[in-house]
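does this look right to u?? zinc ion version
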Amino acid sequence: MNKIKYCPKCKEYTLEEVCPRCGEKTVSRIPPRYSPKEEVAKYRRKLRRDILKKEGLL
Ligand SMILES: [Zn+2]
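got this back:
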Protein backbone atom coordinates (compact mmCIF):
# COMPACT_ATOMS: atom_id res chain seq x y z
CA MET A 1 0.00 0.00 0.00
CA ASN A 2 2.84 2.42 -0.70
CA LYS A 3 1.37 3.54 -4.00
CA ILE A 4 -1.08 5.95 -2.47
CA LYS A 5 -0.56 9.47 -3.70
CA TYR A 6 -1.94 12.74 -2.53
CA CYS A 7 -2.80 15.91 -4.37
CA PRO A 8 -1.96 18.87 -2.14
CA LYS A 9 -4.12 21.09 -4.32
CA CYS A 10 -7.37 19.10 -4.13
CA LYS A 11 -6.48 17.53 -0.79
CA GLU A 12 -7.46 14.18 -2.18
CA TYR A 13 -5.88 10.80 -2.39
CA THR A 14 -5.37 9.06 -5.67
CA LEU A 15 -3.29 6.28 -7.13
CA GLU A 16 -2.19 8.37 -10.09
CA GLU A 17 1.17 10.07 -10.47
CA VAL A 18 -0.74 13.10 -11.64
CA CYS A 19 -3.97 14.25 -10.09
CA PRO A 20 -6.85 13.17 -12.37
CA ARG A 21 -8.79 16.22 -11.29
CA CYS A 22 -6.41 19.15 -11.63
CA GLY A 23 -3.32 17.69 -13.30
CA GLU A 24 -1.09 18.62 -10.40
CA LYS A 25 1.77 16.26 -9.65
CA THR A 26 0.86 14.12 -6.67
CA VAL A 27 3.06 13.28 -3.74
CA SER A 28 3.46 10.03 -1.84
CA ARG A 29 1.48 10.00 1.30
CA ILE A 30 -0.21 7.46 3.46
CA PRO A 31 -3.74 8.40 4.48
CA PRO A 32 -3.90 9.19 8.19
CA ARG A 33 -6.72 6.74 8.69
CA TYR A 34 -4.76 3.91 7.19
CA SER A 35 -3.15 1.66 9.73
CA PRO A 36 -1.58 -1.79 9.60
CA LYS A 37 -4.35 -2.90 11.93
CA GLU A 38 -6.91 -2.26 9.22
CA GLU A 39 -4.84 -4.28 6.83
CA VAL A 40 -4.81 -7.17 9.27
CA ALA A 41 -8.57 -6.90 9.77
CA LYS A 42 -9.06 -6.97 6.03
CA TYR A 43 -6.91 -10.06 5.76
CA ARG A 44 -8.81 -11.75 8.56
CA ARG A 45 -12.11 -11.05 6.85
CA LYS A 46 -10.80 -12.51 3.62
CA LEU A 47 -9.49 -15.55 5.42
CA ARG A 48 -12.82 -16.07 7.12
CA ARG A 49 -14.59 -15.82 3.78
CA ASP A 50 -12.26 -18.37 2.27
CA ILE A 51 -12.90 -20.77 5.14
CA LEU A 52 -16.66 -20.39 4.84
CA LYS A 53 -16.44 -20.96 1.12
CA LYS A 54 -14.42 -24.10 1.67
CA GLU A 55 -16.87 -25.38 4.25
CA GLY A 56 -19.73 -24.71 1.90
CA LEU A 57 -18.13 -27.00 -0.62
CA LEU A 58 -17.74 -29.86 1.81
ZN1 LIG B 1 -5.63 17.84 -7.77
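The helical segments are 36-57. idk if thats expected tbh
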